[in-house]
Each structure stands twice: as structure tokens, then as C-alpha cells.
Amino acid sequence: MTNIAILGFGVVGGGVADLLTKNIDCTAKLGGDEINIKYILDLRDFPKSPFADRVIHDFNIIASDPEIDCVIEVMGGSHPAYEYTVASLKAGKSVITSNKEVVAKHGDEFLRIAKENGVCYRFEAAVGGGIPVISPIINCIGQNRITEIRGILNGTTNYILTKMFTYGKSFDESLKDAQAFGYAERNPDADVLGIDACRKITILTALATGKLLSTDKVHTEGIISIRSEDVKAAEKLGMQIKLLGRCIITDEGMHVLVAPFMIGADSPLSTVSGVYNAVEVIGKPLGNVMFYGQGAGAGATASAVVGDLMQIMRSGRNYAEPVWTRSDEGLLDISTLESKHYIAVCGADLTTVEAMLGAVQVIENGKELSFITDKLSEKQVASVIERLRASGAKLRSSIRLI
Amino acid sequence: MTNIAILGFGVVGGGVADLLTKNIDCTAKLGGDEINIKYILDLRDFPKSPFADRVIHDFNIIASDPEIDCVIEVMGGSHPAYEYTVASLKAGKSVITSNKEVVAKHGDEFLRIAKENGVCYRFEAAVGGGIPVISPIINCIGQNRITEIRGILNGTTNYILTKMFTYGKSFDESLKDAQAFGYAERNPDADVLGIDACRKITILTALATGKLLSTDKVHTEGIISIRSEDVKAAEKLGMQIKLLGRCIITDEGMHVLVAPFMIGADSPLSTVSGVYNAVEVIGKPLGNVMFYGQGAGAGATASAVVGDLMQIMRSGRNYAEPVWTRSDEGLLDISTLESKHYIAVCGADLTTVEAMLGAVQVIENGKELSFITDKLSEKQVASVIERLRASGAKLRSSIRLI
Question: Cβ(B47)–Cβ(B74) under 8 Å?
């Protein structure tokens, strides 16, 4: 019998309890042992839940119960998730989480404490919801030289962008729609400003490089300034706009950023729509692979959490546990990143633009002028924009191409 | 030191040796031990290869060398791959293969012998080339109730179909093109008749159900009768035609088949083009996930083989090893499968068709009549086709929709 405790009985916690109960024969077979949900920690009581008798309010009961093998932290937020994780690991209990915030902030420390205590720390659900991403990157393709990881890591923003493209709605209308359907929080900042995607690309970067960056060092742009005009311009080019997390690894170091990108129809990421997520990994000699599925939701997230539990029960630490160091070493300044750019300006004529940039691919030349540049560094783009402004033009949009 | 032997020094065998040599620091770290390629078995000599001194011609040297921990069988074909695999497992050596033919035929037996001898049998590269598919299905999502697995499992046919769609070429022209680029064999039967995809869906079905079907019981159609007119009809509907392997699991049993399907643009499979493969798994509570990447090629396949090696070195049998039984029990007759159908006929008028089927969605009503039916069982479709023939019409095409 493997005894577990669930910290947090919200959507994900409920999903985990539900999956473990409904698919009990699968999980017993896969994990090699029966599983007992001994405690569920929450501030609330759930008198009508079939798990009502497991609900407790004092974490110390869990930490001090030697029967508990594994703690599932699905509370979200940094505190007390951080303290409970450290205490659980130090008490010799493996910890599984879906909490990307705490993994992105403290993953290095948790992995170290887990190792010192001979237990596991797993976080498949922290990136891509139910999609197997973390485990395949470690177990299946880790022997490749990874040159890039890029992904649609946030379902809310992808839903909003899909609405803008499919129905020609504005950002504000699409956000309201997402909120009405429960896909966006009432305070949507963590999603639409790219903060959530930043945490996830930080975790993926650590998997590829062993270095856990400070999230505030990762260049992060959201989608709040994407306009209907940009959507129309992209459509004219047969492209999509997607909020991507990217980690590009070269001999010089790595560029890590979150930003909207215009993507051509030939990229598998361009077809990922609605609340779906996808992570593309490019490596040598593998080429590119992509993992696709629902990035959130009770069922999908519970699947990832329980998948981690199955792996811990079977393999324990007989597994290529990641070793992360907190370090920003090797992180390149964004100014050296080179991309083609879509630029839209008002009050500039094509002659002025081409005098600065040479021939450009013009998309619109009416009320505003929009065009695609050749590959330019961020520094060069900033200089072009500055010169356009100096000439009296007004910048409307600047979006990288991939 | 982990000593391995590679059986077969062709494209894949060469790729494995190359990856293990080039990424030696990654693999040593991930696998937790250094790897030594002690033997390479091949009929030929390779005097110019850096591995020339490891090449041997007698399998018994490998089987009887107690230093060999793991045998990598990348020879292809059933014999002597079958005999070498059994002998290796019985000699207490784990076996890794990329050989779908031998897995689909004898996987149940190999897994049993591996268990009896306390070693591993792994075959990630047998489905989807370098794409992590087998391991994630077992390790990451096995706790779900899988209701369907469907995939583009053969790169050659997908390349041919992509050519037909992108360039309006005929099947024959596209096949010649695929042969010219080395994507199709001179004898392309195993690919274009669906035999290769049938082996792969048989393996995936065994993963989902524990039952290894006889491949000759799996309804298998190839792509040789897909016409340019069908491609045009699909395009008119905004759809693609893809050769899919499908395993559909219900309470009544399972339908397993390989056939071309018309797929709408909203399916992630519709955008998988060229030699790429993708496997979509649908489960409860997970929803759908898709694994995408290069389905063949030295680098991709080598990545999957070496991934298996890393996992064996780390976890050994501390892993949810599949248990398969050779059985066709539960396999439902294709006649009960229900789908919408695209049908193209000559010499029939719409009135006759609608008298049989009620209103249909007409695509073309010129030289030939093509239309989409409602959901019909295979039995009903066969009866409709028979009645159309009896009325003097000639069937041109019949393709299922998904």
C-alpha cells in the first residue's frame, strides 16, 4: 500500500482523487501497488465529498506521519507550497507538483533536497498540463544535443489569439470571451503578460541546460498590444500569431524569451489552436519533435500528476533525476537575437523605410505601412524604430517572425 | 562500463554508433555509466569505418560473452532477428530494437522471455522513429482509459499523399518522386499497401489493451487507389487524405484498421505533412495528446534506440514493463465500424443516390458524382455500393471520414 497526501483540494486536487479512484485497477497495475489517499489538506471542509473523511487542516499531521510515501502539492502559489515541499522532502517523502511558479523559483533547491533525502521531486504537470513533456525530454530524448525548445505554453493566450484570428475580434473582446468561458482569470495578468509562459520556458530551459534562470532575467512580452490590424497582416501572409516561449541554445550561449511570434503555416506550432498547448524540441541527431495536447483542466493535469506517481512507485530514484543549478550564466542579452520582423508604422513612407532597410516585403501601404524586414538583430530593429520615430513616424507594432 | 553489441551496421546501426560516440558525455551522464560498443555484427566488413575493429560475423560471440549487457537489434526482418533476440534475452542480455516486423509478430514472447530472465525488451524506435511514443504511453499516460489511438505511422505514404495534395501529382508520379528521394523502396509494397502501418498499429493496440493481434486479422488498406479526383474533392471540403492506423476501444471491443481517411482541418493530424509521423492518443480523463516528429532516418531512429538504452541503464526492470498476450479476442469485425463516407461514382444520378441514402452532401456532380454520406456502418456502405452497382453505376472511390 502506497499512502499519499494531496495538498489542495481545488480543481486539480479533485481531479487527482477522482482519477485514482476511477482508474484504480490501471493505477495499481502500473504503479505495482495499491494507492491510498490518506489525507487531503485544505483550509475548507468538503462535507459532501466522498473524500470528506480524509480532509485535514494541519500540514504537520502529514509531515509527521511515517506512513505517507508521497505528497502531491497542487495548491499553487509560492507560499506555503515552498515550505510544505521542503518539509515533505526532508521528512523522506517524494513530492509531485503541478505548480509551475514554485518549480520555476525553487526547483533547483527541491531537486537537491530530494537527492539528499533519497526521494523524488517530479513536476510533469507544471508544463503543458496533461501532455507528456518533462518525462520524455529527460527519459527519451535527453541524449540529443538540444538546440531549441519552443512552445505554446499558455492556453489562455492561445485561446484569445485563436478568437482574434477566427472571428476577427479585438484583444479586449477575446479576453472577455475567455473570461466568460472560464479560460481566463478575472485578473488575467499572469497569462496575458506572459508571466505564466515565462515560468514554463524557465523550467524547460533548466531541463535542457541544467541552469535554472531567474525569471526576471528572461525577456518577457505578452499579447496585450496585438491589434486586429496585425492579425489581418498575418492572415495576408498565411501566418498565425502565437505567444511562444523560446530557448535557443548555441555555442555562444542561450537566448530565452517569451513573446508573440508570427509563424508560417509550415510550422507544426501554427496549427495549435484554442486552449491547446504544444512544445517543440529540436535536437541533434533527432530533428524536431512536438508534444501536443490540453495544457490545463482537471482531467489533463491529474493525468500528469498521477503519471509522475506511477513512475515514482515503479522506478523511484532509478531514474535520470535532473540536477539544476541556479544560474544566469550563458544567458545572452536579447539585443543579439536575430529575427525577421513585422513592423507597422503610421506616418512613414516606403521610400524612407527602404532608405533605412533596403527592399522590404510590403504587406499594407495605406493608412499604415506594414512590412517584413530581413533578419535583423534586436539592436538593429531598435535603431530602425528610433530612426522612424525621429522621422515623425509612429510605431504601431513590431512582431518577430519565426 | 556498459558493454553493448549492435546487430546490423546499416543506416540505423551506423546512426546508433555515431550518436553514442558524438554525445558520449550526455549518454554517460544520463545512463549513469560509460558505454562501450564492443561488437557490431554484420555480414559485411567496414574497413574504413572508425568501428572497423568491432565488426564481427558470428552472433555466438555476442551471445556467449558475459560482458555484453545489452544487444541492439537493428537488422530488420523476422529472421534471424527473432532467433538472435530470443538467444540474447535467454543469455541475460537486454534487447532494444527498431524492428517493427519482429515486435508485431513476436513481441509477446520477447516480453515474456525478458521477464523470465530479469532483463528488458524495448522497442521505442519501432513506432514513429525518433518520436517518443511507446515510453510516454506506458510511463506517462498509462493510467488513463485509452479510447483511441490513431496515427500517421508511415512516412513514405504520407510523403506521397503530401505530394499529391501540394503539387496535384498522381499517385504513380508521387511514388516515383518518393523513390527518387530515397523515401520509398524500389519495392514499395510494405509501405503503400499499408503493411508497415499495420505492424505499428498492432504494436500500439497491444500497448493500450495488452493484446497482440495477428496482423492478418487487422483490416488493412493502402493508398494505391487514391486518385487525383479524390484529392480535389478533399481539397474542396478543406480536408486532407491521410493513411491512418486506428485502434478504437469501446465497451463492446475494439476496431483496429489501417486505411486512408479524409481528415478535417481541425484535427491536428491533418497538418502532419511529408515524411513526418504523428500518433494521437485519446484517453480519459486526459483528453487527446499528440506526439509528432520524424518517423524515420538514421538520426531520429538512433535517438529512440539510445533513449531506450538510457532508460534500461537507469531503471532496468524498475519500470512498468508491458505484458502482452497473443490474442484476437475482442477484435470487432470491420462491418460494424461506423463512419461518414466519401463516395465517388460514375453513371449514377443524385436522385438514385438520395433515394437510397436520403440527402447527401454533394461535392461534384459532373463527369462523376461524389458525395459525403451520413454515419454508416461498413455493412451499410457495402450494401449501398452494391445497389449502386446493380443500378449500372461504377464505383470510383470510397474513403472514410474521421
Answer: no
Instruction: Tell me whether residues A300 and B306 touch, CB distance under 8 A.
Output: no
**Claim to verify: residue B97 and residue B185 sit in the same structural domain:** no
Number of domains comprising chain A: 3
CATH of the domain at B15: 3.40.50.720
The pLDDT tens digits of the residues spanning A369-381 come to 999 999 999 999 9
B377 shares contact with chain A (CB less than 8 Å):
no
> Min CA distance, B211 vs chain A (Å)?
15
Domain match, A251 and A173 both? yes
Q: Element (H or E) spanning B214, and its range?
A: none
Q: Are residues A232 and A367 located together in one domain of the fold?
A: no
Are A57 and A110 part of one and the same domain?
Answer: yes
Confidence check on the interface: ipTM exceeds 0.85, yes or no: yes
Surface-to-core class of residue B154, CB atoms within 10 Å of its CB (0-12 exposed, 13-18 middle, 19+ buried):
buried
Please judge whether A299 and B314 are an interchain contact, meaning their C-beta atoms are less than 8 angstroms apart: no
Q: Who's near B235: CB < 8 A, 6+ residues apart?
A: B165
Residues A15-25: tens digit of each pLDDT: 999 999 999 98
Q: Is A367 on the interface with B (CB under 8 A)?
A: no
The mean per-residue pLDDT over the stretch B348-373 comes to: 94
Window 110-129 of A, Cβ < 8 Å to B? 124
Query: CA-CA distance, A332 to A326, in Å (whole number)?
Result: 16
Separation CA A269–CA A242 (nearest Å): 8
Residue A210 sits in a domain whose CATH number is: 3.30.360.10
Q: Do B144 and A26 touch (CB under 8 A)?
A: yes
E-strand spans in A251-314? 253-264, 276-284, 287-294
